Amino acid sequence: MIEQSQTEFTKTAVANANKFTSDFASAPADGISVVETYGGVPSVSSGDLMPAQSAGIGKANVDTEENLYRCHHLTGGAKHPGTIVETPGLANIKPPRPSYRPRLPKEMIESAEISEIQLERIIYAGQAHESRLPFGASARAGISIGDGTGVGKTTTLLGIILDNWFSGRKRAVWFSVKSDLIKAVKDEMRRLGLQIPIQLVGDYKPEEEITMSKGIVFCTYQSLIAKSKKGHRRIDQLTRWLGEEGLLIFDEGHKAKNFFAENERNQTQTGAAVVEIQNPEKFPDYRVIYSSATAATDVRHLGYMIRLGLWGEGTAFADFPEFAFEIEEGGVGAMEMVARDLKAMGRYFCGSLSMNVDEESGLGVEYREVVHHLTAHQREMYDNMARAWQAILQKTEKALALTNSEKFLRRFVVNNFWAEHQRCTKAIITAFKVPTLLREIERALAEQHSIVVSITSTGEATTRRQMARVADEEEAISDLDFSPRETLTRLVENCFPTALYQEVTDTVTEKTKYEPLLNDVGEQIHSKAALTLKQELLDRLATLQLPEHPLDQIINYFGAENVAEMTGRKMRLVKLSNGEHAYRPRGIVGVPQRQTNLHELQNFQGKRKRIAIMSEVAATGDSLHADRRALNQQRREHIAAELKWSADKQLQDFGRTHRTNQAAPPIYLLVYTELGGEKRFSTSIARRLANTGALNKGDRRANQIGGLERFNLESKEGRAALKIVYDRVLAGCPIPGLENPMLALSDMGLLAKSENGD
Asked: Which domains does the chain have, with CATH numbers?
């Protein structure tokens, strides 16, 4: 049983330290065979922290402090192939002295295939699994491995599987974000000399039994929630195969972060399934590993980690809602304490690759900012787009009043409006940057660097809709519009309110509800005035000029033969030699469609292509760094054409090019415009990065990437400044840069009518 408090837990661990030390020291180094208990290579030690040396590399320097990562209770193990650091907040915390001794091949340790840092995680995973939680049928405790992207979590997880294998537990389920990543696991197994059977769960139908007698079942989170037409669930298939003592590895476990919701109907299926398969009541002997560099950007994202013992019977918090509420009330400081307390319990470890100068290459991670200044033509397009959105909002408000649907439909319409507004504006700003992106790519190529360009979306949905019009209306592809204008047009066509509604009072409840107004034949009646407003908007949008999506612009400029595209789209527009366009499959001849991204990754790492473009599909798990084992060891320039929608995705994105065993660390290029809207978007990402650093690394400063923290305006000072501006506008004071401040607030939908109609 796990003790009632962290202090007691630590005391118990320390009390057992003397016996462990003597056993460990007496074990001869040559007394380890393939299946014997591990011991003898490292030894138990303790010592002071070693601060990392700061290197002067200009913008390569990160504002956070770094401490060289140190395994407090192990020495003599193999040095990690990369320089691993830890934030001061976690570096000052020592985990309990371990008593668990794993079973691993002696050769694997002596040949440095598993580093000391990875061995430490394997030991503490075994120690956690031997502990019992004070609730849930005394279920086994779990451990969270939060090492940063590129540290080598795959090797660590395989080491945990191997330890269980030699202990007689030979069945494990490895959850991941996409099936392509099974290749990375197989490659790492090959490097380690392992021959453990591994299969995709998709090789079996949900109603079938898994016939593999032992090994690893590789399952995506999407597959976990799948079921057959007859109702046979994957989750039941997996638990039947695992038996009573299975090993569950939740790699990239942040996919389950949205499990907790105040309303159960808002829970994600993935989060619910992840919690169900590790249910401490039904499966108390399952051994659980959580692994993610970005486990949580918010306290509520920890809800799926039910085996860490942070809440429940015998803890300070009765349940997760209470835990989440108390930590949120405590602010970022309380978030930092979560990671520190978990490390003190031996259930959380987090190291990151240093951003400072690499000893071998003499280079450090560099951050550069490139500002794209809008041309006069681009400014005109942006202003016209802004006016179009203002017109849509104003006419939508009028249409809601004309159709008598304002009271019950307004929230849906307005929310949809602002969601599409942000998506469209973000796409246009990214498209504006293309000339600067092309110039920076050409410069990097001339400097003998390889380039990775990260984008958020591919625009495939828009392209598919437009190509469907070609088939229906027999239009030429050259006549179609693939710019973000289609987003505005679709919003007006599909969401603009024109149907009339009437108020109806329920005779029983006396509540008023709204029902559509129908004619004699049961057809819905539309407001002629609202229809006129809708047509006016469509006519106005027809003349709006906006730039095309940047993805195809870049590929057409450099040629598909020179660009490795790693995205989720299946088709793309190809520019022919005669200037016409054709809509063709993105796949490569002789390569199955589902392996296209993998093939493109190999082209990039094999130096057959020196430019890679990746969307969110490739932003998790794939390795695009200057790997010493790859032919392409050129230094990477990672160009962030646009920031991701969330902090965890941004960290995962940057982690594709900064990884262990690299010949040179990357250069990150952050491409901005001078537009205020983009800076406003950046401030949300900066704030979430601070929360991610607090929760995952015990230090809110840990994820200050490329100076993004200076964009964080979501502070007390930022909110106070905004309130001053609002107050001055309402008081009629002039505001620099705004001709009519009150009208500007109205156009942005920030003014609401008071009870007296003002």
From this structure: 6-353 (3.40.50.10810), 374-432+485-545 (no CATH)
